[in-house]
Amino acid sequence: MDNNIKTISNFAKNTEGWLTNKEGRFLYEYAKKCKKGVIVEIGSWKGKSTIWLAGGSLVGNKTPVYAIDPHAGSSEHQTMYGQVWTFDEFKKNIKKAQVGEVINPVVKTSEEAASEWDKPVGFIFIDGAHEYEFVEIDFKSWFPHLIDGGIMAFHDTFGLPEIACKRILGFPGPRRVVEKYLYKSNFFKNIKFIDSITYATKTNKLSRKDKIKNKIAFLVRIIYNYFIGAYLVNFKVGFSYKKIKKCF
Protein backbone atom coordinates (compact mmCIF):
# COMPACT_ATOMS: atom_id res chain seq x y z
CA MET A 1 0.00 0.00 0.00
CA ASP A 2 1.52 3.34 -1.04
CA ASN A 3 1.81 6.20 1.43
CA ASN A 4 -0.99 8.21 -0.17
CA ILE A 5 -3.48 5.35 0.17
CA LYS A 6 -2.43 4.94 3.81
CA THR A 7 -3.06 8.64 4.43
CA ILE A 8 -6.44 8.61 2.67
CA SER A 9 -7.40 5.40 4.45
CA ASN A 10 -6.68 6.96 7.84
CA PHE A 11 -8.77 10.05 7.11
CA ALA A 12 -11.62 7.94 5.69
CA LYS A 13 -11.50 5.58 8.67
CA ASN A 14 -12.11 8.48 11.01
CA THR A 15 -15.01 9.82 8.93
CA GLU A 16 -18.52 8.60 9.71
CA GLY A 17 -20.05 6.50 6.95
CA TRP A 18 -20.67 3.00 5.64
CA LEU A 19 -17.84 1.85 3.38
CA THR A 20 -15.38 -1.02 3.73
CA ASN A 21 -11.67 -0.49 3.16
CA LYS A 22 -11.84 -2.65 0.01
CA GLU A 23 -14.67 -0.52 -1.34
CA GLY A 24 -12.71 2.62 -0.54
CA ARG A 25 -9.66 1.34 -2.38
CA PHE A 26 -11.86 0.49 -5.36
CA LEU A 27 -13.12 4.10 -5.49
CA TYR A 28 -9.56 5.36 -5.12
CA GLU A 29 -8.18 3.22 -7.96
CA TYR A 30 -10.96 3.99 -10.43
CA ALA A 31 -10.88 7.69 -9.64
CA LYS A 32 -7.13 7.52 -10.23
CA LYS A 33 -7.69 5.89 -13.64
CA CYS A 34 -10.41 8.29 -14.77
CA LYS A 35 -9.07 10.31 -17.72
CA LYS A 36 -12.16 11.21 -19.72
CA GLY A 37 -15.14 13.03 -18.25
CA VAL A 38 -15.64 13.97 -14.62
CA ILE A 39 -16.27 11.87 -11.52
CA VAL A 40 -19.74 12.01 -9.97
CA GLU A 41 -20.78 10.79 -6.55
CA ILE A 42 -24.47 10.46 -5.67
CA GLY A 43 -24.80 10.48 -1.89
CA SER A 44 -21.85 11.93 0.02
CA TRP A 45 -23.16 11.90 3.60
CA LYS A 46 -20.18 13.21 5.63
CA GLY A 47 -17.51 12.65 3.01
CA LYS A 48 -16.10 9.17 3.63
CA SER A 49 -16.41 7.95 0.02
CA THR A 50 -15.71 11.46 -1.29
CA ILE A 51 -12.31 11.42 0.42
CA TRP A 52 -11.43 8.12 -1.26
CA LEU A 53 -12.52 9.42 -4.67
CA ALA A 54 -10.67 12.71 -4.33
CA GLY A 55 -7.56 10.95 -3.00
CA GLY A 56 -7.40 8.79 -6.12
CA SER A 57 -8.10 11.71 -8.40
CA LEU A 58 -5.28 13.77 -6.90
CA VAL A 59 -2.65 11.13 -7.64
CA GLY A 60 -4.15 10.45 -11.05
CA ASN A 61 -5.33 13.10 -13.48
CA LYS A 62 -6.86 15.49 -10.94
CA THR A 63 -10.24 14.79 -12.49
CA PRO A 64 -12.94 16.94 -10.84
CA VAL A 65 -15.13 15.11 -8.33
CA TYR A 66 -18.73 16.35 -8.11
CA ALA A 67 -20.17 15.32 -4.75
CA ILE A 68 -23.96 15.50 -5.09
CA ASP A 69 -26.09 15.36 -1.96
CA PRO A 70 -28.88 17.56 -0.53
CA HIS A 71 -27.26 16.90 2.87
CA ALA A 72 -30.70 16.52 4.43
CA GLY A 73 -30.31 12.75 4.73
CA SER A 74 -32.16 9.99 2.94
CA SER A 75 -35.33 8.46 4.33
CA GLU A 76 -33.21 5.86 6.15
CA HIS A 77 -31.11 8.57 7.78
CA GLN A 78 -34.16 10.58 8.78
CA THR A 79 -35.69 7.48 10.34
CA MET A 80 -32.52 6.85 12.34
CA TYR A 81 -31.54 10.41 13.22
CA GLY A 82 -34.58 12.63 12.70
CA GLN A 83 -33.80 16.01 11.12
CA VAL A 84 -30.46 15.84 9.34
CA TRP A 85 -27.95 18.42 8.05
CA THR A 86 -24.54 17.01 7.11
CA PHE A 87 -22.98 19.67 4.90
CA ASP A 88 -21.01 21.37 7.66
CA GLU A 89 -19.45 18.10 8.78
CA PHE A 90 -18.83 17.16 5.14
CA LYS A 91 -16.84 20.37 4.56
CA LYS A 92 -14.94 19.90 7.82
CA ASN A 93 -13.92 16.34 6.91
CA ILE A 94 -12.86 17.29 3.39
CA LYS A 95 -10.74 20.13 4.73
CA LYS A 96 -9.12 17.87 7.31
CA ALA A 97 -8.24 15.29 4.62
CA GLN A 98 -6.76 18.06 2.42
CA VAL A 99 -8.48 16.79 -0.74
CA GLY A 100 -10.77 19.75 -1.43
CA GLU A 101 -8.74 20.86 -4.46
CA VAL A 102 -10.66 18.54 -6.80
CA ILE A 103 -14.04 18.40 -5.00
CA ASN A 104 -17.08 20.35 -6.17
CA PRO A 105 -19.97 19.97 -3.70
CA VAL A 106 -23.45 20.14 -5.24
CA VAL A 107 -26.10 20.58 -2.56
CA LYS A 108 -29.05 19.24 -4.56
CA THR A 109 -30.87 15.99 -5.08
CA SER A 110 -29.52 13.64 -7.73
CA GLU A 111 -32.49 14.31 -10.02
CA GLU A 112 -32.19 18.10 -9.66
CA ALA A 113 -28.48 18.05 -10.45
CA ALA A 114 -28.90 15.72 -13.44
CA SER A 115 -31.65 17.88 -14.97
CA GLU A 116 -29.20 20.74 -15.53
CA TRP A 117 -26.05 18.70 -16.06
CA ASP A 118 -23.83 19.49 -19.07
CA LYS A 119 -20.57 17.56 -18.49
CA PRO A 120 -19.57 14.09 -19.71
CA VAL A 121 -19.17 11.63 -16.84
CA GLY A 122 -16.35 9.08 -16.83
CA PHE A 123 -17.02 7.45 -13.46
CA ILE A 124 -20.13 7.58 -11.29
CA PHE A 125 -20.69 6.11 -7.84
CA ILE A 126 -24.36 5.82 -6.84
CA ASP A 127 -25.00 5.64 -3.10
CA GLY A 128 -28.04 7.81 -2.45
CA ALA A 129 -31.44 6.80 -1.07
CA HIS A 130 -31.77 3.00 -1.22
CA GLU A 131 -35.47 2.55 -2.01
CA TYR A 132 -35.91 1.00 -5.45
CA GLU A 133 -37.71 3.97 -6.98
CA PHE A 134 -34.97 6.38 -5.92
CA VAL A 135 -32.11 4.16 -7.11
CA GLU A 136 -33.93 3.75 -10.43
CA ILE A 137 -34.27 7.56 -10.71
CA ASP A 138 -30.52 7.88 -10.07
CA PHE A 139 -29.77 5.39 -12.81
CA LYS A 140 -32.14 6.89 -15.38
CA SER A 141 -31.03 10.44 -14.58
CA TRP A 142 -27.30 9.77 -14.99
CA PHE A 143 -27.06 6.98 -17.56
CA PRO A 144 -27.35 9.47 -20.49
CA HIS A 145 -24.42 11.50 -19.10
CA LEU A 146 -22.08 8.51 -18.76
CA ILE A 147 -19.64 8.24 -21.65
CA ASP A 148 -19.06 5.07 -23.67
CA GLY A 149 -16.38 3.21 -21.74
CA GLY A 150 -17.35 4.99 -18.50
CA ILE A 151 -17.80 3.14 -15.21
CA MET A 152 -21.06 3.05 -13.25
CA ALA A 153 -20.90 1.68 -9.69
CA PHE A 154 -23.64 1.07 -7.12
CA HIS A 155 -23.16 0.68 -3.38
CA ASP A 156 -25.05 -1.73 -1.11
CA THR A 157 -26.05 -4.15 -3.87
CA PHE A 158 -25.33 -7.24 -1.81
CA GLY A 159 -28.41 -8.89 -0.41
CA LEU A 160 -30.83 -11.74 -0.52
CA PRO A 161 -33.52 -11.67 -3.21
CA GLU A 162 -36.61 -11.03 -1.10
CA ILE A 163 -37.70 -7.92 0.76
CA ALA A 164 -38.45 -10.11 3.78
CA CYS A 165 -34.70 -10.49 4.30
CA LYS A 166 -33.72 -6.83 4.01
CA ARG A 167 -33.50 -6.33 7.77
CA ILE A 168 -30.95 -9.13 7.91
CA LEU A 169 -28.87 -8.61 4.81
CA GLY A 170 -28.54 -5.86 2.27
CA PHE A 171 -30.90 -3.48 0.52
CA PRO A 172 -33.32 -4.76 -2.14
CA GLY A 173 -33.47 -1.41 -3.99
CA PRO A 174 -29.87 -1.20 -5.25
CA ARG A 175 -29.77 -4.97 -5.83
CA ARG A 176 -32.90 -4.96 -8.01
CA VAL A 177 -31.73 -1.95 -10.04
CA VAL A 178 -28.38 -3.62 -10.70
CA GLU A 179 -30.09 -6.83 -11.79
CA LYS A 180 -32.41 -5.03 -14.18
CA TYR A 181 -30.20 -2.28 -15.57
CA LEU A 182 -26.72 -3.81 -15.50
CA TYR A 183 -26.90 -7.61 -15.71
CA LYS A 184 -29.93 -7.69 -18.04
CA SER A 185 -28.99 -4.61 -20.06
CA ASN A 186 -27.55 -4.36 -23.56
CA PHE A 187 -25.46 -1.37 -22.54
CA PHE A 188 -23.09 -2.73 -19.89
CA LYS A 189 -20.23 -5.22 -19.88
CA ASN A 190 -17.47 -6.44 -17.57
CA ILE A 191 -19.84 -6.55 -14.60
CA LYS A 192 -17.98 -7.19 -11.36
CA PHE A 193 -18.43 -6.71 -7.64
CA ILE A 194 -16.26 -5.98 -4.63
CA ASP A 195 -17.85 -6.35 -1.21
CA SER A 196 -21.25 -4.61 -1.63
CA ILE A 197 -20.32 -2.56 -4.72
CA THR A 198 -21.38 -3.75 -8.17
CA TYR A 199 -19.85 -1.95 -11.15
CA ALA A 200 -19.78 -2.21 -14.93
CA THR A 201 -18.51 -0.53 -18.09
CA LYS A 202 -20.96 1.25 -20.37
CA THR A 203 -20.86 0.18 -24.01
CA ASN A 204 -22.80 1.17 -27.11
CA LYS A 205 -22.55 -2.35 -28.48
CA LEU A 206 -22.78 -5.55 -26.47
CA SER A 207 -21.25 -8.57 -28.19
CA ARG A 208 -22.56 -12.13 -27.88
CA LYS A 209 -19.50 -12.94 -25.80
CA ASP A 210 -20.25 -10.03 -23.48
CA LYS A 211 -23.85 -11.21 -23.03
CA ILE A 212 -22.63 -14.68 -22.03
CA LYS A 213 -20.12 -13.18 -19.60
CA ASN A 214 -22.90 -11.07 -18.05
CA LYS A 215 -25.03 -14.17 -17.51
CA ILE A 216 -22.12 -15.98 -15.89
CA ALA A 217 -21.38 -12.94 -13.71
CA PHE A 218 -25.01 -12.88 -12.59
CA LEU A 219 -24.90 -16.57 -11.69
CA VAL A 220 -21.67 -16.07 -9.72
CA ARG A 221 -23.28 -13.20 -7.86
CA ILE A 222 -26.34 -15.26 -6.91
CA ILE A 223 -24.11 -18.08 -5.62
CA TYR A 224 -21.98 -15.59 -3.70
CA ASN A 225 -25.03 -13.99 -2.13
CA TYR A 226 -26.46 -17.36 -1.16
CA PHE A 227 -23.39 -18.81 0.53
CA ILE A 228 -22.13 -15.60 2.10
CA GLY A 229 -25.68 -14.84 3.16
CA ALA A 230 -26.04 -18.28 4.70
CA TYR A 231 -22.82 -17.77 6.64
CA LEU A 232 -23.84 -14.34 7.93
CA VAL A 233 -27.32 -15.41 8.92
CA ASN A 234 -26.11 -18.54 10.70
CA PHE A 235 -23.03 -17.22 12.43
CA LYS A 236 -23.40 -13.43 12.59
CA VAL A 237 -27.11 -12.88 12.97
CA GLY A 238 -28.16 -16.12 14.64
CA PHE A 239 -30.93 -17.25 12.31
CA SER A 240 -31.30 -20.88 11.28
CA TYR A 241 -30.25 -22.17 7.87
CA LYS A 242 -33.87 -23.12 7.21
CA LYS A 243 -34.92 -19.47 7.49
CA ILE A 244 -32.49 -18.30 4.86
CA LYS A 245 -33.91 -20.88 2.42
CA LYS A 246 -37.24 -19.09 2.65
CA CYS A 247 -35.60 -16.07 1.04
CA PHE A 248 -35.09 -17.94 -2.25
Plain-language structure description:
The chain is α/β, with parallel strands linked by helices. The chain has a single domain (3-245), classed as 3-Layer(aba) Sandwich (Rossmann fold), CATH 3.40.50.150. It has helices at 3-13, 21-33, 48-59, 75-81, 87-97, 110-115, 132-142, 172-183, 208-237, 241-245, and strands at 38-42, 65-68, 103-106, 121-126, 146-154, 188-194, 197-202. The longest helix is centred in the C-terminal third of the chain and has 30 residues, at 208-237. It starts with a helix and ends with a helix.
Concise structural overview:
The protein is an alpha/beta fold and 248 residues long.
Number of domains: 1
Say which CATH homologous superfamily is assigned. Answer: Vaccinia Virus protein VP39
**Unreliable parts:** 161-168, 235-248
Q: Report the helical percentage.
A: 40-55%
Strand order of the largest sheet: 3-2-1-4-5-7-6
Describe this protein with a few key phrases.
248 residues; alpha/beta; Rossmann fold; seven-stranded mixed β-sheet; 10 helices; 7 strands; disordered C terminus
Protein topology:
Blueprint: H1 3-13, H2 21-33, E1 38-42, H3 48-59, E2 65-68, H4 75-81, H5 87-97, E3 103-106, H6 110-115, E4 121-126, H7 132-142, E5 146-154, H8 172-183, E6 188-194, E7 197-202, H9 208-237, H10 241-245
Parallel strand pairs: 1-2, 1-4, 2-3, 4-5
Antiparallel strand pairs: 5-7, 6-7
